[in-house]
Amino acid sequence: MKYTVSIEIAAPREKVAQLLADPAHMPKWLRGLVLHEPLSGEHGQLGTESRVVMQMGGREFECTETITRREPADLRAIPRESVVRFEREIVGEGMWSAVRDRLTEAGPETTLWENENEYRFSGFLMKLVGLLMPGTFRKQSLQHMQDFKAFAEQGKDVREATD
């Protein structure tokens, strides 16, 4: 299963890239995040492997995330024509996923965030989930992006949400 979602954020690309890459900010916008801890490497850097625990509905899902691409490595003074890329592989029980994020300038103070997702499932239950509920994955990705947009633009923290 593959899909791409995108959103415009009313903030400069450099700021968006820095906020997105900073693990200290993850709990503020990544709804359902229970834990994100490096097992090897430096948080958010190329090659880093992390243990990630997410709360989804009434259950927790644990997976391993590996950063497979981060360009540029230094997120300060990014040249205007550059595309910022963050890519990672996520492996959990019955699931493999590749996530490819691209940040481009949509205007002087606006960033376009494109989020490409690819999922492969193994095991009967996960294959069934992927077959019957593909829209759920897309909806969740878009929710994370909307939460990040609210955080980047207005400082909103999903942990303080009352919905």
How would you describe this protein?
This protein is of the alpha+beta class. It contains four helices and seven strands; from the N terminus they run E-H-H-E-E-E-E-E-E-H-H. Strands 1-7-6-5-4-3-2 form a seven-stranded antiparallel β-sheet. It holds the Pfam family Polyketide_cyc2. It comes from Streptomyces narbonensis. This is SRPBCC family protein. InterPro entries: Polyketide_cyclase/dehydratase (IPR019587), START-like_dom_sf (IPR023393).
Estimate the global geometry from the Cα principal axes. globular
Number of strands: 7
Mean pLDDT value: 91
How far is it from the N-terminal to the C-terminal residue, by CA? 30 Å
* Largest sheet report: 7 strands, antiparallel
Q: Taking Cα atoms only, what radius of gyration do you get, to the nearest Å?
A: 16 Å
Report the helical percentage.
25-40%
Q: Give the low-pLDDT segments.
A: none
Major beta sheet, strand line-up: 1-7-6-5-4-3-2
Count of DSSP-assigned helices: 4
Query: Which class best fits the helix and strand makeup?
Result: alpha+beta
* Beta fraction: 35-45%
**Order of SSEs:** EHHEEEEEEHH
Keywords:
163 residues, alpha+beta, 26% helix, 7-stranded antiparallel sheet
Write a compact overview of the structure shown.
This protein is of the alpha+beta class and 163 residues long. Helix content is 26%, strand content 44%. InterPro entries: Polyketide_cyclase/dehydratase (IPR019587), START-like_dom_sf (IPR023393).
List the helices and strands and how they pair.
Blueprint: E1 2-9, H1 13-21, H2 26-29, E2 33-40, E3 49-56, E4 59-71, E5 84-92, E6 95-107, E7 110-121, H3 124-132, H4 134-154
Antiparallel strand pairs: 1-7, 2-3, 3-4, 4-5, 5-6, 6-7
